[in-house]
Amino acid sequence: MRCELLNLAMLLILAVPGWAQLTAPAGATGASTPDAQDAPVVPLDPDRLGVSMARIRRGLRISEAREQQNASGLKLQFQVQVFGAAPRIDIMRGFDIRKGAPTPFGAPTHSDFISQWTPIAYRSPPAPLSSLAGWALFKVVQRSEKSRCEQEIADYRAAVMAGQSVAAPRCSQ
After folding, report:
1. Burial 116-146 (b: 16+ CB within 10 A, else e)
2. Is residue 69 part of a domain?
3. How far apart are the first and last CA of the chain?
4. Which range of residues forms the domain containing residue 68?
5. pLDDT tens, 110-166?
6. Rounded CA separation 16/5 (Å)
């Protein structure tokens, strides 16, 4: 049964282009002249149509062999063969591959790894370094102001002991 259906389908596939060549539309160029109707019919070459007769014959042999093996009508078996160009698969769709951009579902960065595996108690430094540096700078400025004030008071005392009339120092301790 399948063999007969495949033969019929093959004949229809090969005959349709032949019919299209024989019956041209009335408005086509050269179709209204009597010479165009008497033109010789060129036989169809299946190789030019992209049809392989050897493949068709081999497919028919395989389908007949399968049909003979499955004589029972209870087991249905279908086979679909699809021929065509495969669609282009874009693997990088949705990924931002700019420099420094994180890749979704990619490997973790070094900072991700460190934050994941370091316990919370040990994650931050014992004292923030910026605060420590600010405190040290504050102490240096405070000490320089104190030494400047002490020098000003010492100069004031020396001027008073020398009998000079000078203004009192502005700084106080």
Report:
1. eeeeeeeeeeeeeeeeeeeeeeeeeeeeeee
2. yes
3. 116
4. 1-19+42-81
5. 888 888 898 888 877 667 788 888 999 999 998 888 888 888 889 999 999 998 888
6. 16
**Domain count across the chain:** 2
Q: What is the pLDDT of residue 13?
A: 75
Whole-number Cα distances in Å, 126 to 121, 122, 134 = 10, 8, 16
* Last residue within a domain, chosen from 81, 105, 131: 81
- pLDDT band at residue 89 using 50, 70 and 90 as cut-offs: confident
Residue 9 included in any domain: yes
Q: Which amino acid is at 42?
A: V
- Please choose, from the candidates 45, 59, 44, the residue with its C-alpha nearest in 3D space to the C-alpha of residue 9: 59
Of 59, 81, 103, which residue constitutes the final position of a domain? 81
